[in-house]
Specification:
transcription, 47% helix, 6-stranded parallel β-sheet, 434 Repressor (Amino-terminal Domain), alpha/beta, 334 residues, Rossmann fold, DNA binding
Length: 334
């Protein structure tokens, strides 16, 4: 078995002190007035022998692991998957690594994962919070662990967050349906008290009220099976004779598509909150309320890095505008 190379081995081979090698490897050569020629000689030798620093020892010495915990609702959902990919790329450029996992909106699982990541001393957290974790997040903040929430926030916890304007996005979608001339416009949402779901419901309600239209709302249980949801949506659309439906999430919209196929009924006009690769491939292509994914990721990282560097001067609450991407599914055919 090949022996692990230590800093002392490098120092011995080059005839310099361990302290000098350590300063060079920790980018302190100029600060310690170590010559450029010696610095180059050490770095060239390190590269030649393939020396890798002991990250555990380094973290114990600096108090930093250079790891960020990313806890999201569902990594398989394109919205969260794309944001995770962007965050991972951006933090890597800053010398950090990401460890991430999905909670599936399970409060107990979320608490367990936060505890596990905290035990591993991640430097900070990026979290899409499930309901009922206010105390867990508050404990992190009280322990001076940097936390940034996104997609939704916890009204009773004062911390940084980055969200989309869910209210305006749902309002714009509802207005679009009404301006197209649809008469019976429904909303499919979830039984959830999360802020993004409340705001989407409120946006739909305001849009319907503006046009003095009857509201039709169907809420699906978070733990409902797909088969149950498919049957519930069939009953909701057909019994209410809906000619347009706003789905509060992309996965609810996909369930709606499956419902139409299973029960062989003509789907009404559709708009989904959050895009999905399926929506462009579907015939007709599905109109979506699109969140600014790259901008969300940029703001999350900028806020977290300032907190990690101790430069954050205040708590940031950012709300970014959505875009209604109009496709064929919401256009009323004359």
């Amino acid at each position: 078995m090949k022996k692990r190379i230590l800093i002392s081995d490098i120092a011995k081979a080059l005839g310099v002190s361990v302290t000098t090698v350590s300063f060079i490897l920790n980018d302190k050569a100029k600060e310690k007035r170590i010559s450029e020629s010696l610095t180059k000689r050490v770095l060239d030798y390190v590269k030649k022998v393939g020396y890798k620093p002991n990250e555990l020892a380094k973290s114990l010495r600096t108090g930093k692991t250079k790891i960020i915990g990313l806890i999201i609702e569902d990594i398989s959902n394109p919205f969260f998957g794309n944001i995770a990919r962007l965050i991972e790329t951006k933090v890597y450029e800053q010398g950090y690594r990401i460890i991430y996992c999905s909670t599936n909106n399970d409060s107990e699982k979320t608490k367990e994962l936060i505890g596990m990541f905290n035990d591993r001393q991640v430097d900070g957290f990026i979290i899409t919070p499930s309901e009922g974790i206010e105390e867990t997040i508050s404990n992190l903040i009280q322990s001076n662990v940097p936390v940034v929430l996104f997609d939704r926030y916890l009204p009773d916890v004062e911390t940084d967050y980055v969200i989309a304007d869910n209210f305006q996005g749902a309002f714009d979608a509802t207005v679009h349906f009404n301006e197209q001339g649809y008469k019976r416009i429904g909303l499919v949402s979830l039984y959830s008290d999360q802020t993004q779901m409340r705001d989407r419901l409120d946006g739909y309600m305001k849009g319907m009220d503006q046009f003095k239209k009857q509201v039709y709302i169907k809420k699906i249980q978070l733990d409902a099976s797909e088969a149950e949801a498919i049957d519930d949506l069939h009953e909701f659309v057909v019994d209410n004779r809906l000619d347009a439906v706003l789905f509060a999430t992309n996965y609810l919209a996909i369930t709606g598509l499956k419902s139409g196929k299973k029960h062989n009924y003509k789907l009404p006009a559709l708009i989904a909150f959050d895009d999905h690769t399926v929506f462009k491939l579907h015939e007709p292509a599905i109109t979506v309320v699109s969140q600014p994914i790259e901008e969300i990721a940029d703001h999350i990282i900028n806020i977290l890095l300032l907190k990690l560097q101790g430069k954050a001067k205040s708590i940031k609450h950012l709300t970014l505008p959505c875009e209604l991407k109009i496709r064929e599914s919401s256009i009323l055919k004359q």
